[in-house]
Amino acid sequence: MSFFDKIFGGKENTPERKSFWKKIESEEDLAKAIETSYHHKVAIFKHSTRCFISKTVLKNFEKEIDNLDQKLDLYYLDLLEYRSISNKISQDLGIRHESPQLIVIEDGKIINSASHEDISVSQIT
């Protein structure tokens, strides 16, 4: 592994996501996330696996979320793999696409969102 891969994360150094993430890999997964929001808040983290900023924000968010006591389902969307689903989120929920982006949904509607360095657990609570 090269020096730059160690710093910026090469393809072969892709860490496993934390166990609390539920992946969104289909329109059905997205529909399930939105349906769940009628029972309690959900958050969708839209992540670009090739972006250093997105990797850093995700890592920091995961550290923060470990200390959250609130009932919440956390969804993870790989933007590069599932761009069409990201587009559907933008279209169906009326939000501009950003990356990285955290979208908090309750009762089927966006109640908060943040992007880049503004992403934190405080967006959820």
From TrEMBL:
Matching Pfam families: BrxC
Entry-linked SUPFAM superfamilies: Thioredoxin-like
Domain of life the protein comes from: Bacteria
InterPro entries: BrxC (IPR022551), Thioredoxin-like_sf (IPR036249)
Name used for this protein in its record: General stress protein
